Amino acid sequence: MAKPASAYRCTECGWSTVKWVGRCAECQQWGTVVEASEQTGITRSLKPVAIGASQVARSITEVTTEERGHWPSGVGEFDRVLGGGIVPGAAILLSGEPGVGKSTLLLDVAARVAASGRRVLYVSAEESVAQVRLRAGRTGAMQPELFLAAETDLATVIGQVDAVQPELLIVDSVQTVTSSLNDGIAGQPGQVREVASTLIRLAKERELPVLLVGHVTKDGTIAGPRLLEHLVDVVCQFEGDRQTALRFVRALKNRFGPTDEVGCFEMTGDGISEVPDPSGLFLSRGAAVSGTCVTVALEGRRALPVEVQALVVATKAPQPRRVVNGVDPSRVAMILAVLERRAGLRQIGEHDVYVSTVGGVRLIEPGADLAIAIAIASAMRDRAVPHNLAAFGEISLAGEVRPVSSAKQRGSEARRLGYTTILDVEAGSVQAAVGRALAAATTERERELDAAF
Hints:
Elements: E1 8-10, E2 16-17, E3 33-35, H1 76-82, E4 91-96, H2 102-115, E5 120-124, H3 129-139, E6 146-149, H4 154-164, E7 168-172, H5 189-206, E8 210-214, H6 227-231, E9 234-239, E10 246-254, E11 262-268, E12 271-274, E13 292-299, E14 302-314, E15 322-325, H7 329-342, E16 351-357, H8 369-381, E17 389-391, E18 394-395, E19 401-402, H9 407-416, E20 421-423, H10 430-452
Parallel strand pairs: 4-8, 4-9, 5-6, 5-7, 7-8, 15-16, 17-20
Antiparallel strand pairs: 1-2, 1-3, 9-10, 10-11, 11-12, 13-14, 14-16, 18-19
Helix pairs in contact: 7-8, 8-10
């Protein structure tokens, strides 16, 4: 009898094939197909393990609830995302693109926790101790209770934990630590799975919170097996454009708090700083000019005013340009069609249109449709929208202004910042909203002229 060909199996989804391939045909993951062990056909029975008196299952009504309180890390915006702070025994995964500032943020967290009297062990598997010390000196993270170690072996990391006895462990990063129990190189799914499961088991057994840094792939997802996200308690994503100083921390998974909170930070030459009230980051401070309108966007539970700017220029080209920055190009194209068909801007197809946001923020929600439409109409008519006007609402193809989520919270934030005229779903149609905005612009211009003379 011929010997059956060796099978290969995906470590992510279990898909099998008779030959090795680099990419799994089922889950589309790279590098997860490995050679499966030979099947002998012998089923071995497991012997039951004796259960002690303290391990016997109890009725759910007899189980007492022990509230695990959060203790603050000292970084308010990070605690907001975590749901109030760090929970003992929690495994937290922080992912982000290279150079976005993950190590800087965690070094700041480590310094704040060490300043409160708790011992912190920062294990760097990517940098030397001298490099981390240099960054800590620049950012002011020098604390006697902050211990540094540069290790890439998992057993040595556990030995450092036994020697230091920290109350917080930070590993930067989980993809660069290797375990001798696995034959793969650092970063392979087997190694990442072994290292992460060991560190998480260490966190649960010793009530030691562990912060893990995770790399991301080209498409922005967390590198390594999907099992990594299932094992940890909290998955945070650190995002931001490296060309701008603003950074956001979002919780994609949180067993101890909400997943719709957003923390705002700003990268400076001295490190990273919190932005508890980012209201003024996305607004221009100059005089009122045509082609600008303020909307109120939602980032998690936080309402942020964002200024949308538009520029309309006449052109003789057969294909007018449509250049956008910070907004969805397809929504801008739809809004232009609605303005031409429903709002009376017949000549918009003969103009180049440029739409952008202030401060590098990206608007992906439909609530900014009305502000984009007003900004384009203002630039088309060359009338400056008043500073005290804000608009938010979704525009349908029929030209109607549809309601958006958390409209009351958006309106309250706009009024708190001094916007007395708010255009929303009560405007009825985009034509009426644009007409009201341009009428308010004309009235304010007349008042300015009267004041000048």
